[in-house]
Amino acid sequence: MANPYINDQAARSESASALGRLLADSYMIYLKTQGFHWNVVGPQFEPLHALFQEQYEELARAIDEIAERMRALGVKAPGSFAEFAALTSITEETGAPAAPTMISQLLSDHTTAARAALQAVTAAEARGDVATADLATVRVVQHEKVAWMLGSFLER
């Protein structure tokens, strides 16, 4: 039986809308993580500097995949700070907080992004959009993994 989703642009747009929120959250975390990579100081400098670089590089790849999936769904991907700011649930950081605060913020941000990714999974599955559901599931796993890693830095 054919999946009616393939020809249903309204359903495709709804999947893309959920991805747009995930894209905005991912991009804001990317910016924050890269800024923290540049500005981290203190006794944990070396491991955090390396970890933040690894994380923002992974986010850059994910951002591209999410945006390209939106385009495959026939929807324009947001690409400006104004669009991202309107869609994101992530709070911007303009300062250079202490390393434990950086870690706490990113832990919270990745938890928020995991929820956005789960919402994208749910929206896509409800419409029979298995490709978007698959992509968003991978993002849930990745954001939860990063949250766990960051949380490990805060344990005593």
Topology, please?
Elements: H1 9-39, H2 45-72, H3 81-87, H4 99-126, H5 130-154
Helix pairs in contact: 1-2, 1-3, 1-4, 2-5, 4-5
Family: Belongs to the Dps family.
Protein name: DNA starvation/stationary phase protection protein
Pfam families: Ferritin
Question: Could you characterize the architecture of this molecule?
Answer:
The chain is mainly α. It has a single domain, classed as Ferritin (Up-down Bundle), CATH 1.20.1260. It is 76% helix and 0% strand. The chain is built from 5 helices and no strands. The protein has helices at 9-39, 45-72, 81-87, 99-126, 130-154. Helix 1 packs across helix 3. The mean pLDDT is 92.
Kindly list the characteristics that best describe this protein.
mainly alpha, 156 residues, Ferritin
Could you give a short description of this structure?
By secondary structure, the chain is an all-alpha fold. 76% of the residues lie in helices and 0% in strands. Residues 18-155 form the Ferritin/DPS domain.
The share of residues in helices is over 70%
Look at the structure and name the CATH superfamily.
Ferritin, core subunit, four-helix bundle
Average pLDDT reading = 92
- Radius of gyration, in Å, reads 16 Å
* Largest beta-sheet characterization: none
Family: Belongs to the Dps family.
Domain Ferritin/DPS: 18-155
Protein name: DNA starvation/stationary phase protection protein
Pfam family, one: Ferritin
